[in-house]
Amino acid sequence: MGGVEDLKKAVLSQNLCTACGACAGLCPYIDIVEGKAVIFESCGLKEGKCYAFCPRTPLDVAALDRKIFGAYRTDHVLGFNKSILQGRARDSEIRAVSQYGGVVSALITYALEAGEIESAVLVKSADGVNPKPAIVRKRDEVLECARSKYLACPTVSMALEAAKHERGNVGFVGTPCQVLALRKMQISELKPEANKIKLIVGLFCTWALQASAQKCIRDKVGEEKVLKLDVPPPPANILVIQTERRLLEVPLDELRRFIMPSCNVCLDMTNEFADISVGTVEGEDGWNTIIARTSVGEEILHTAIAEGVLETKALGEDKLKHLYEAALMRKRRVLMEMPPEKTAYLLLNEGYKSKILG
Amino acid sequence: MSLFDLVEPGRKGLLMGNEAIARGALEAGVDFCTGYPGNPASEVVEALAKAARKFGIYVEWSVNEIVALEAAGAAAAAGLRALTAMKNLGADVCSDFLMTVNLSGTRGGFVLVTGDDPSAHSTTTELDTRNYARFADIPLLEPSTAQEAKDMTKFAFELSEEIGLICMVRTVTRLSHARGVVTLGPIPKEKRTAAFSSQDLWTSGSSSITCMFHSILHEKMNRVKAKFEESEFNRYTGNENAEFVIITAGTGWLYSLEAVRLLGLEDKVGILKLGTTWPLPEKLVLKHLRRAKEVLFVEEIDPFLEQNVKMLAAELLAEGNVGPLKFYGKKSGHVRGEFGAGTGEIDVDTVIRALAEIKGLQYQPREREYSEKASAVVGSLVPARTMGFCAGCPHRASFLAIKKALQWDGRDGIVTGDIGCYSLGLLPTGFSVAKTLHCMGAGIGTANGFGKLASFGLDKPVIAVSGDSTFYHACIPALINAKWHNANILYVILDNNTTAMTGHQPHPGTGSDVLGNPVLKIPIEDICRGIGVETRIVDPFDLKEAVQNVYEMLKMDGVKVLIFRHECPLTETKKREKKPKVYVDQDKCIGEECGCARFCTRVFKCPGNIWDPAKGKAKIDDAVCVGCGLCADLCPAEAIIVEEET
Question: E strands, A244-348, where?
Fold first, then answer.
């Protein structure tokens, strides 16, 4: 356990804040400002939720696995999983506004309409670049939040707002660090209201950009409304900016300096603690990779398929291999290349390490 | 009800010192009164404002002291009787005009009242304005009692008119705000007519003309000196042959009388009380110096009498018929405050200590345990509370917003403070955000410098803070300078629609004059935008918006203005009939737990929020809470409930 001073020492001074918004949502003395937590007054407490739930304070993967999935993982690369598919929304309107196959928007819309959840915490953007968390209740509100946002966003703060004020079950869509913070809360006795979040859809993630990237993007496209940002799979190495008038390709190397430093220590590309994880399918546009991890995730996936919300097929051998290798390489890179003080938060057993490092 | 404006000559009653000054002006038939609010002088103008309609007097709160003195000077030049009142620092502000109108002179009686504040109870300096009388070489009167305050003010008008020279009356906090018995005199009925024709000339001139006026001033002061020799405001009490003489003025006289009596020194110590302290009534003083062996000076703040009398004694020394003389006072260190001689207020104990030390007497003015006993009694009655903003004060929200925004910004920005309730921005109640405090306008003025130091290695955001009345008073030239030189400054104006600290006087933005008449408003934003400065207006109670705007504007280059506009709750609550009920839901309050850690009572610290240590929960002090609801908005546990009273 630790308090705000430990948070400062272990996370903030190490530049490891993910801007997930967990601490800020729980504490009147912390705000997330342009991609990092700012403490404006010390609470003076030796132990606090800020430290307990931060995704960059000690993470006991084995303990988390057991509490969420009931067992320790057998797959050290993709995490605990029940099924891996590829799929897309059947609703062409959803697909039209979505990043790839529209699975996230379709699942959340379905969960809302089926009454599994009453609201969901998503991220929207008025200008297509600057992200803002939102609580949504209806299909059109979900669709306003479609498409990937590449800038870090304190979505967990909004999830906590929703957990506090929403009467019914809440859904959540977020990055691995955000999901990790919520899971830490859910398994803790300190924050029971986080258990109102009944469906967690995790996004695959390689990195997020700091708020300062906004200016860089704006310098490229001026005031034009951005309709879509996309980083196509390697070896493209570009960011594609689609505005109302044009399609612009920016070399990723121009943007790498804006990557959140906290992303460099993250092992989790496929959102291993979500109920269901969704990402791209390399080599097949217009589809998503779907990993159902918990029984909640598996159930919603199956009913959504049965109700005709999603169209799915098996993920091809080569695509699965590709996914597996990408996730493995990421873990190797973090464990081998990052200085030990930056990865000290990862409490991994020797078995985990040997599986990754071989 | 005060009897200060009753037309009942001969009636006796209690008047506050400042009311007595106002009464003296009424008895002199004052026509024109100006001033700027400031402790301890504010009530002079306020009293005359109350009597304005009844006696046909023109009264205004001017935008600042120099305009006040200039306006009153013009009325006096036109033959009217005019008075201007201000606090000590106001004399600094008006000193430019004072240093020339002493030469140009006056036709009607022209009186400057200055209120000094020894111990700086509500001031940022212990300035002794008597030095201005000597500096400008104008007559100075120092009342000791409320009766004298009235009589000397009336006399000052007569003297001023007779000599053709502005006269100064100097009061101090303990005289201005104490009440004393006054016998009322008649209030004259005749009306004066103002006149200033193309034949008139009113100037201090230039070059040889100025020197000529300067010489005339000296001649006028010689006439004043002759009159002062005969003045009944100067008197000697005690043994005519006493070899030990106290020379004193103002409140020091009363302290001296009491100290001498308590020590039983009536036969040995004589007291020369001077009411006319510049120019000195030299013959009167010399008469006593010739006889004395020892002299003790008792006066507030500076060794003004002490130095002037010593100069006189030096002249006497040349004559060879004086001394040897021993002088005691500030220079010798016998008359001293807590922080040494020439600092702090004096009182009876100060004089007793001085006399006892000089005379080798043992005297304990109070029992040794007095202060412990007193604090034991008081401590049980007074809640433990540091100096702070009132309940519901918008400045608390404003400084919280500034503090947050500075932390967000992370560049260790500098905040320069200014004069008003918000001077408390230096203290914990303002989250110790402000780091400088001097005189009115110095916040934005010094920010002009801090905002230009980037090339010297001090590249930090600079926030200047001032209030609304202070903005009009002294900040506009500095804002223009900042714009002119493109200084990097965010100027935050805390607009609570009143001059709150001095007692809610109107200002150019309030839309009313001193009599409460509706007048044209001169909005702050119009002035700032007229200067070409980007100006935003935010309610600090919308704390998120307030923080966001400070944060954003800190990043913008050049000079920016952010007006935090929210009415002072002391004026706002007077207008409403019902107060919302505010309470803490004891089940929701999480007190010292993580996620709050007593935000309302440990950090926010509105006096309406109080802590119940027994229960470990917050509660509301109903007697203090104004029902603004800001704490309810900020409570992290949403435990504070505001119910509109039906």
Answer: 247-251, 276-280, 288-292, 310-314, 346-347
- Identity at B465, one-letter amino acid code: V
Interchain CB contact of B255 with A (< 8 Å): no
pLDDT at A161 over 80: yes
Q: Which two tokens stand for residue B599?
A: 């935000």
Residue B547 Cα, gap to closest chain A Cα (Å)? 11
CA within 13 Å, CB half, A316: 8
- What pairs with residue B505 in β-bridges? B499
Distances, alpha carbon A35 to alpha carbons A4, A226, A267, B10, B442, in Å: 18, 21, 20, 77, 37
Per DSSP, the residues of A64-108 read HHHHHHSS--S-TTT-S-SEEEEEEES-HHHHHHSSSS-HHHHHH
Under a CB-based contact definition with an 8 Å cutoff, are residues A87 and A278 in contact? no
User: Which residues in chain B are closer than 8 Å to A29, comparing Cβ atoms?
Assistant: 597, 599, 603
Continuous H helices in B420-542? 442-450, 468-470, 476-484, 524-531
Domain B12-189+203-229 bears CATH identifier 3.40.50.970: yes
Backbone φ/ψ region at B392: left (φ over 0), alpha (ψ -120 to 50), beta: left
CA distances from residue B14 to B144, B156, B462, B596 in whole angstroms, order as listed: 15, 22, 50, 53
Global pTM?
Answer: 0.93
> Inter-chain contact B551–A33, Cβ cutoff 8 Å?
yes
Interface test with A, best of B433, B594, B609, B633 (most A CBs within 10 A): B594
Q: Containing H/E element for B632?
A: helix B630-634
**Contact state of A26 with B597 under an 8 Å Cβ cutoff:** no
Q: Helix, strand, or coil here: A187?
A: helix
Dump pLDDT digits (tens) for B561-608. 999 999 999 999 999 888 899 999 999 999 999 999 999 999 999 999
The token pair at B493 is 């104006």
Q: Considering the domain B235-359 in this protein, what is its CATH number?
A: 3.40.50.920
Radius of gyration of chain A (CA): 19
Task: Tell whether A63 lies on the interface with B, counting CB pairs under 8 A.
Answer: no
- Cβ atoms of B467 and B420 within 8 Å: the answer is yes
Q: Does A48 touch chain B (CB under 8 A)?
A: yes
Helix, strand and coil in chain A, % to nearest 5: 40, 20, 40
Where do the domains of chain B lie? 12-189+203-229, 235-359, 394-573, 576-643
Same fold, B235-359 and B576-643: no
Nearest chain B alpha carbon to A44: B597
For residue B256 the two structure tokens come to 């001296």
Strand partners, A280: A288
Write the pLDDT tens digit of every residue in B248-268: 999 999 999 999 999 999 999
ipTM: 0.90
CATH number for the domain formed by residue range(s) B576-643: 3.30.70.20
B410: chain A residues, CB-CB within 8 Å: 38
Which residues does chain B have within 8 Å of residue A27's beta carbon, measured at their own beta carbons?
A: 594-595, 636
At B22-36, the pLDDT tens digits run: 999 999 999 999 999
Lowest mean pLDDT: which of A349-353, B54-58, B391-395?
A349-353
Tell me whether A35 touches chain B (CB under 8 Å): no
Q: Beta partners for B566?
A: none
- Residue range B74-78: average pLDDT? 98
Does the domain made of B394-573 have the CATH classification 3.40.50.970?
A: yes
User: Residue B84: which of B125, B120, B36 has the closest Cα?
Assistant: B36
Q: With contact defined as beta carbons under 8 Å apart, do A10 and A41 qualify?
A: no
Residue of A nearest to B431 (CA): A41
The burial of B194, by beta-carbon neighbours within 10 Å (0-12 exposed, 13-18 middle, 19 or more buried), is given as: middle
Cα–Cα dist B59/B52, whole Å: 7
